[in-house]
Amino acid sequence: MTRQTILITGAAGGVGTLLRPRLAREDRTLRLLDIVPAVDPQPGEEVVTGSVTDLDTMVAACRGVDTIIHLGGQSREHTIDNVLELNVAGTYTTLEAARIAGVGTVMLASSNHAVGFSPREGIPEGGLPADTPARPDTLYGLSKVGIEAAGRLFADRYGLNVICVRIGSWFPTPPGVRGLATWLSPDDGARLVEACIAAEDPGYRLIWGISRNTRRWFSLAEGEAIGYDPQDDAESFADQLIEGAEPDFINDPELNRAGGTWCEVELGKPM
Ligand code: 15L
Q1: Candidate from 170, 178, 254, 265 with most ligand 1 atoms within 8 A of CB, to mutate
Q2: Exposed site from 144, 157, 196, 226, fewest CB < 10 Å?
Q3: Residue span of the structural domain in which 179 resides
Q4: pLDDT band per the 50, 70, 90 thresholds, residue 1
Q5: Burial 31-60, CB ≥16 within 10 A → b, else e
Q6: For residue 58, what is the domain's CATH number?
Q7: Ligand 1 centre and the CA of 88: distance in Å?
């Protein structure tokens, strides 16, 4: 088998740090790009320091790359200038570099906050579809809609394979009761990335990035269609997370919209 090269942007962040050991393979190079150097590089890892907004840096980083896992950018609510620059322009630059360098597939980290105002009420059996129309809850969510649109543009114009993952809550453990529905475990996150790497000519896709949570209300079908088979369930944390009455995912406004409390935060105020 020929050696694979995977470029991870935002590799020094929380998700990149969870992914690195889980994606390590003898026949694979992980190229780790971030504005600060990724710590403690292991055999098979290459460290690149630079910004996803710089085209020259990105074209150089994309050389010989099979798949890009694009995590780099702003991960919280921030000013409009900040999220447009880091997320929309940063993703455009990453896609343009992928095109120039002939990269096969780009996985884009979108977010549940691109559709954060979607209500739990009235969703079809099987869950909220992964291609639910944009309903951003924040400027951050708006920038994630822009990321998805940038991916669509490059797929339609140039035939680039682009998989946008509307990530739920990708953390070591579910963050609070909402996480019982939205959690993406570290191991399932790696399974999802492996499915994106293995997908042959997927074209443009939107999928949800969550685990097989008992209380999920987001569809897994679109992820399963590219081979994602999540094994973890936030339910194993339910006893720790639920204090008192059972949570009401149908009526509680903190739980029954995809974005949870992000629907109420002050727009443009850095978190
Ligand atoms: C996101 O998109 C954020 O990047 C992350 O920090 C979490 O807040 C996550 O969504 C979530 O909704 O739990």
Answers
A1: 170
A2: 157
A3: 4-264
A4: low
A5: bbbbeeebeeeeeebebbebbbbeeebbbe
A6: 3.40.50.720
A7: 17
**16 is written with which tokens?**
């990149």
Question: Which residues have a Cβ under 8 Å from the Cβ of 10 and sit 6 or more positions away?
Answer: 16, 33, 34, 52, 70, 71, 72, 73, 109
Ligand 1 center from residue 169 Cα (angstroms): 5
pLDDT in tens, 149-166: 999 999 999 999 999 999
Identify whether 158 is a catalytic site residue.
no
- Ligand 1 site: residues with CB under 6 angstroms? 75-76, 111-113, 167, 169, 182
DSSP letter assigned to residue 119: B
Number of domains forming the structure of the chain:
1
In a domain, 78, yes or no: yes
% of the chain surpassing 70 pLDDT: 100
